[in-house]
Recover the amino acids of this structure.
């Protein structure tokens, strides 16, 4: 059963300073919830039972948020604040939370590599902690990826067309997949490139922040040299796996599933306005 997910949440959030000087980017509010709570709720809906957060310095607010705060619950009950108490129902979900730190913040690939001692020989989901899929209901894409992984035993990832995401010029901030053989509900990924120049993008499909890997990915992450930005990129490890003969599959995000990438203040502002409606 594929019930283990890793949420990388160790980035410094430099694009949001001074807002993120002491507040994790993943804890920024959208509506009445922090960004990362939407991600966790999406995973739990897809039968994930164990969630490992990869955190960094000044990220303890994530741990506190998912703890059960008995003093707060007692206060709300004593004062008859049942409406506010209902907002804490997420504390009672069945998932078990685990935390480890990315001691040296050296890119998403290195953050995922930090999960190896916990994951060991199990397949696992990766869900980026600053990207929400689906609104108002969480996306089912992780369940679709899990079903495909169970059937094919190959690494899988969600993708989204540029024109459903943002303007083409923003490709320089994305991982881009080159589709190969069309297999109906999914396709084989022939190549993948991290943050290509606009004219060098191999397709119009961006990776949509949800993946499922076998433990084989760790071998490639250990062999990956720093790439764009001087960091170890997850995309580069996936590319190496494909070029080594590994099969990677792509699944298009359903059109109804909007993607909210809280990568900079402009995208956060637009998402905030949407969730405030």
């Amino acid at each position: 059963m594929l019930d283990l997910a890793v949420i990388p949440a160790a980035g410094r959030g430099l694009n949001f300073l001074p807002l993120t000087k002491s507040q994790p980017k993943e804890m920024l509010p959208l509506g009445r919830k922090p960004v990362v709570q939407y991600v966790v709720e999406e995973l739990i809906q897809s039968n994930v039972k164990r969630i490992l957060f990869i955190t960094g310095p000044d990220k303890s607010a994530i741990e506190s948020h998912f703890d059960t705060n008995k003093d707060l619950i007692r206060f709300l009950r004593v004062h008859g604040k049942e409406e506010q108490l209902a907002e804490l129902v997420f504390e009672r979900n069945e998932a078990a939370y685990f935390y480890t730190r990315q001691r040296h913040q050296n890119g998403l690939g290195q953050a995922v590599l930090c999960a190896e001692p916990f994951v060991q020989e199990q397949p696992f989901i990766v869900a980026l902690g600053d990207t929400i899929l689906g609104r108002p209901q969480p996306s089912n894409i992780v369940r679709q990826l899990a079903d495909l992984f169970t059937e094919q035993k190959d690494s899988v990832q969600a993708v989204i067309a540029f024109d459903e995401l943002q303007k083409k010029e923003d490709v320089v901030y994305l991982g881009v997949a080159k589709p190969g053989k069309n297999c109906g509900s999914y396709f084989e990924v022939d190549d993948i490139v991290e943050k290509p120049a606009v004219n060098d993008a191999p397709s119009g499909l961006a990776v949509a922040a949800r993946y499922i890997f076998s433990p084989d990915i760790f071998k490639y992450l250990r062999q990956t040299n720093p790439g764009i930005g001087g960091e170890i990129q997850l995309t580069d490890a996936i590319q190496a796996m494909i070029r080594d003969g590994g099969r990677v599959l792509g699944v298009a995000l359903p059109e109804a599933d909007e993607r909210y990438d809280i990568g900079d203040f402009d995208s956060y502002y637009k998402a905030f306005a949407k969730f405030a409606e």
User: Anything to note?
Assistant: Residues 141 and 253 are 7 Å apart (CA to CA).
